[in-house]
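Illustration 12: Peptide/nickel transport system substrate-binding protein.
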Amino acid sequence: MKKVAALATLLALTSALAASPKDTLVYQSSSDIPTMDPGVTYDTASGGVVENIYETLVTYSGASLSKLEPLLATKWTISNGGKTYTFDLRKGVKFHSGNAFSCADAEYTFERNLVTNSAESGNWFLAESLLGTGANAADDKTITWARIDKAVECNNAGQLIFNLPAVDPAFLAKLAFAGQSVVDSKYAAGLGEWNGKEATWKDWVGKDLTNSKLSQAPSGTGAYKLVRKDSNTLLATAFDGYWGKKPAIKNIVIQKVSELAARQQAFLRGDADLIDGGGRAVDETQVKGKAGVTWVDNLDNTVATAFFMNQNIKNPALLGSGKLDGKGIPATFFKDANVRRAFSYAFDYQKYITDVQKGKGKQRTMLLPEIFGGYDAKVSKYTYDKAKAESFFKRAYGGQLWKNGFVLTANYRQGSEPSQKAMEILKANLEALNPKFRVNIQAKQWSEMLKDSKDGKEAMTIMGWAPDYADPDNFMYTFYSSNGYYNPRLNWKDSQIDKWLEQARSTVNTTERNRLYSLVGKKAFEQAPYILMPAGINYIFMRDNLVGVSASNYNPMISFSATGTFWKELSKK
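Figure caption equivalent — predicted structure in token form:
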């Protein structure tokens, strides 16, 4: 009867908001949750759910960005010159299905990630560690089942063993990523997912798991299990069979509420404990200092954000005429470096810092947070300069662009006030330069933007990168390498930068790595593949009866960025 009553309470909350009960956390998000399958989890909205339903072998210790502690593992040893990792696994752990957790589940999980390794996932960096390449078997014919099978295996003592082809000092940190959470192998196979056998592995190579059966009905070892999910609401409840400390918050309700005003009203009434804000300027004005609100400021920002200028736009619908005739743009519009430089000088960085970040923001020289090694503060930065923007526009395409003008259509993340404001600032400045310049901006659902940008179908987008693991390579290679994860969204290549980045990831000499990253930063300034967005100084806010959130335990590596903690660490007073 108690379970029925609890479920009834959860269902009631989704249909008609009431003040959030003490045993229930209500979070209103601006975006949808693309997936709940760890094997393809690669965005923060999905990660914030997956990391609480599932668990990884290791996790970050408190607020540390680099210190790791056991989770589903109990200890580990490193041998063979740093190329073999042996994990002892926790006993007495159950999945939500009731199945017992064993080494076979961990082996299945990592083999599944290596086999599928789709473009939608973060498994490329696991594959780099375990196979020596970020590709899957469809793109790299040298990848065989034997290589995958050897990379991760269980021994007779029930220990999990990883065999790396080369030393990777970031490997442990990679295992803390939510996308490497351990999957219930028997349950997954029963749903019709890959059965873990050699005979069928080729059928699953590169398979997009975003809408997999496991995503629709997950079973993890986490402190919370899914009750139900639809397009607007996710309901989760504490797992009675959880091996660890029982969480104080019993019920989790995540609601997609696109309108900021509606989220703010629910939050200030106490109907929501946490919400996606509208950026510092809006939040400080409309939320900070209000009754019942706790505000935590001056937190580290480990996200790097930029305007992506796609040099091969694969969506005719965004091109208008498809020509430089003043009625559209060609697919290769941003291939001319002068266009990119002109756009970079046309963005008013200080206005964004003042209006959107309310003065609490700063320009970076590189798409790498300052707290990571390799950041060089001496690299040049673009500033808002109308004269320079005009000069570069007049050089672009031999003067034809300035003479004929252009029409650019750019999408931004629906519900994201900062992205909308940034697009509006750029649009206004570009159109003020030349009456023949026109920029159309429009909101688009996040999951659709993720897919279309990956397919090269967005002309210009604003996207950020939250680190998967604490190493500068995770930013520099991702953004700047032609083999990096973000390249299909940008279609930019610089062979010298590629060379430097490969050198940087093949040495453990910190001084040399820093020198190489500085060279990349300087060359990237010259080539302007991105417009670097000012980095905000992080803050969070919540209802004042929510306990467990503070500057001392906030970890920016946790995907649930509303608190920087796992759900199980929260309670209410």
